[in-house]
UniProtKB/TrEMBL annotation:
Keywords: Kinase, Transferase. Its cofactor is Mg(2+). One of its GO terms (molecular function) is diguanylate cyclase activity. This is diguanylate cyclase.
């Protein structure tokens, strides 16, 4: 049916439909003066059609990105073709409060936008129609899924008990640090340490108390490291640290700080207060190791030397305990 053949009754229900549809409809002239403003826009903006008609959109909504929308509209008018934007590119055009109870966790309505040219009888674009779609449900679901995936990715890289990097992730960092040394030759040290007589802690106080000791050890370690350092839980009561840009003496200072903090602490567990110590091995990286596993072996040998030397001490690889 051609527009000129639409009767009065048909036109009435067409207008009624446009007023009640759950899509925002805004018609602008090329100077951005509002020509039409449907019920969706009235409801969410709190501004009636009679009040906003012939008003410049940017005057009524100063937070709309004027330069961005102007470029979009100019392109649509010049090319006489539609343009689309999604909430992922720009969360919203109109800063409407989210009114959906199911997705009440979001403060504002996420919107997709269609910008369409409206031509006159001569075929020239005279006006622009903005169609605003409420996609808050879709956006909320996708954001929740992305957050869940990020959390899963983090869990796959971290130790559940301590929050430190797990063994696999931490060993990958050792490999990366080894390759960085081969390329740039910067000082770097690898640390391995474990809790002295940890089996006796578990046997005497139980595994839950043992877990508290492990968690406390991880906390002391993190509290005494720099942002650039990479601590990890290697397994059981054994931990490791990568110290980039650090020579043997610098590593010794850090390790002694950790050792002394633990030696002077008492862990308050549900079973009993527990005091304990740690032994620490340091392996400064040199040209001698042929791969990162040999570097790790050097740190492990330094740790073994610390234990053989009486425990509760720090030993640098190649030095006597």
């Amino acid at each position: 049916m051609a527009i000129k053949e639409i009767g009065a009754s048909t036109f009435h229900w067409l207008v009624d439909m446009l007023e009640s549809v759950e899509v925002g409809l805004v018609v602008l002239d090329l100077d951005f003066r509002v020509q039409a403003w449907n019920g969706f826009m009235e409801h969410h903006s709190g501004i009636t059609a009679s009040k906003i008609r012939e008003q410049v959109l940017f005057d009524m909504f100063p937070d709309i990105p004027k330069a961005w929308l102007t470029r979009k509209v100019d392109s649509v008018a010049m090319l006489n073709t539609r343009a689309f934007t999604s909430w992922e590119q720009r969360p919203y055009l109109f800063r409407f409060r989210n009114t959906r109870p199911i997705t009440g966790t979001e403060d504002f309505m996420y919107q997709n936008l269609t910008i369409s040219p409206l031509s006159g009888p001569d075929g020239q674009v005279e006006k622009i129609c903005l169609m605003v779609y409420d996609v808050t449900d879709i956006a909320t679901s996708k954001r929740a899924l992305e957050t869940a995936n990020e959390q899963l990715a983090k869990l796959s890289m971290t130790d559940r008990l301590t929050g430190l990097l797990n063994r696999g992730t931490w060993e990958n960092l050792i490999d990366a640090e080894y390759e960085r040394y081969r390329r740039y030759g910067h000082n770097t040290c690898l640390i391995m340490f474990d809790i002295d007589h940890f089996k006796a802690v578990n046997d005497t106080y139980g595994h839950l108390a043992g877990d508290e000791v492990i968690k406390y050890t991880a906390k002391v370690m993190k509290d005494n490291l720099r942002q650039s350092d990479s601590p990890g839980r290697y397994g059981g009561e054994e931990f490791g640290i990568i110290l980039p840009e650090t020579d043997a003496e610098g590593a010794r200072v850090i390790c002694e700080r950790i050792r002394e903090a633990i030696q002077n602490s008492t862990v308050q567990t549900t079973a009993a207060p527990i005091q304990y110590t740690v032994s620490i091995g340091i392996a400064p990286l040199t040209d001698r190791p042929e791969n990162h596993m040999q570097w790790l072996q050097q740190a492990d040998e330094a740790l073994y030397a610390a234990k053989e030397g009486g425990r509760n001490r720090v030993v640098v690889f190649g030095e006597k305990s």
